[in-house]
Design brief:
It is a single chain. The chain is α/β, with parallel strands linked by helices and about 375 residues long. It contains 12 helices and 14 strands. Strands 2-10-9-8-5-3-4 form a 7-stranded mixed sheet, sandwiched between helices. A 3-stranded antiparallel sheet has the order 11-14-13, covered by helices on one side. Helix 4 links the parallel strand 3 and strand 4. Helix 2 packs across helix 9. It is globular and about 65 Å long. The N and C termini lie far apart (about 45 Å). The model has no long low-confidence stretch (mean pLDDT about 95). The chain binds pyridoxal-5'-phosphate. Pyridoxal-5'-phosphate (PLP) binds next to helix 3.
Length: about 375
């Protein structure tokens, strides 16, 4: 007698801050028969995944690989490998994920120099320059796309000021990779991490990381061992490098998935993909404003992949989201931290960024808000 029923998950329209919807080609790739992680076929696949990752990151960095773990594992890998106890990191905190970086860096014994700005605002190279003049740092960390606020910090010119002060630029591009322009080499970014379940439209489970020459040199010049065995990039380098030496068992099916998700990005083309994200967001923004709703972030720094909407007075946050899910099968998210109860977060990421989804959401919201 079995009291458990078959797994029966609904097909949701995922318009929150991630995970985004996953195309069936990616789901099917995950269902392929398992092979061993040192099988020549898997080793070939690892190479392809790395080559495709270099394409989306717009980089030639040899050390470009998917960390086994979600975006936060990618984040932790960069922090754990760059910093030794007593090193200083300057972190731009303008939302929830800057906060998380501070927590992580502190746990590895770094001196955390926070640069705070109100949620929804962004940092300019001039501000970073001025802050570094007051207090130097080994690493400067910026969140490219703050998923908690919907604000985009432009990165052009950022590395120039960071390098002028002898620091390295670390960038969180979890909600930008594959959705909005991100040019690792052209912008001279030293090290960056991302996730799979946002604009890449792959299930959560891998944390793509790319490491440039300066950061790689820092890894090799460390005096102390990385305090995290699993995320030690100099060990992972031998696993994902030419030697392919066993370190841990890569999540095989997740790598099937990311290969297919990356192939879809490649087939669409980065530019076309960025344009699609931009255009569908414009339809969303216009429609929300037509409904009399207020968008929190001004258009100049608004993220195409994530929009924050002020919840109007007298409207019940939780009730509207519950009804969107139950009656229309649509997931959007509430606010985090400072924005809790004050904002909705609507994601149009990857495969979720489609005109029909936008129109459905607008129509559903219009009906629910009328009552
Ligand atoms: C989602 C997200 C993360 C964390 O990624 P997980 O996959 O949830 O671990 C980090 N930074 C930003 C900006 C994110 O949006």
């Amino acid at each position: 007698m079995n009291i458990f029923t078959d797994l029966n998950t609904p097909e949701r329209i995922l318009l929150g801050p991630g995970p985004s919807m996953v195309p069936s080609r990616v789901l099917q790739a995950m269902a392929h028969p398992l092979i061993g992680h040192l099988d020549p076929k898997f080793i070939e696949l690892m190479k392809e995944v790395q080559e495709l990752l270099r394409y989306v990151f717009q980089t030639k960095n040899q050390m470009t690989l998917p960390i086994s773990g979600t975006g936060s594992a990618g984040m932790e890998a960069t922090v754990a490998n760059l910093l030794e106890p007593g090193d200083t990191i300057m972190i731009g905190v303008n939302g929830y994920f800057g906060e998380r970086l501070c927590d992580m860096a502190g746990r590895y014994g770094a001196i955390v120099n926070r640069l705070d700005k109100p949620w929804g605002e962004v940092f300019t190279p001039e501000e970073i320059d001025a802050a570094l003049r007051k207090q130097p740092a080994k690493v400067v960390a910026i969140i490219h796309a703050e998923t908690s606020t919907g604000a985009l910090t432009p990165l052009e010119g950022m590395a120039e000021v960071v390098h002028k002060h002898g620091a390295l630029l670390l960038v969180d591009c979890v909600t930008s990779l594959g959705g909005i322009p991100l040019k690792i080499d052209e912008w001279d970014i030293d090290i960056a991490y991302s996730g799979t379940q946002k604009c890449m439209s792959c299930p959560p489970g891998l944390g793509p990381v790319t490491v440039g020459a300066r950061a790689r040199e820092v890894f090799h010049q460390r005096k102390t061992k990385v305090a995290n065995w699993y995320l030690d990039m100099t060990m992972l380098e031998h696993y994902w490098g030419d030697e392919r030496t066993y370190h841990h068992t890569a999540p095989i099916s997740m790598n099937f998935a990311i290969r297919e998700a990356l192939r879809l990005v490649y087939e669409e083309g980065l530019e076309a993909r960025h344009l699609r994200h931009r255009e569908n967001s414009q339809i969303l923004w216009d429609g929300l404003e037509d409904l009399g709703l207020q968008l929190i972030v001004p258009v100049e720094r608004r993220l195409p992949s994530l929009t924050t909407v002020a919840i109007p007075d007298g409207v019940n946050d939780v009730d509207i989201r519950k009804r969107l899910l139950e009656e229309y099968n649509i997931e959007i998210a509430g606010g985090l931290g400072v924005f809790k109860g004050k904002a909705w977060r609507i994601g149009l990421m990857g495969y979720s960024s489609r005109k029909e989804n936008v129109i459905l959401l607008l129509s559903a919201l219009s009906r629910l808000l009328k009552k």
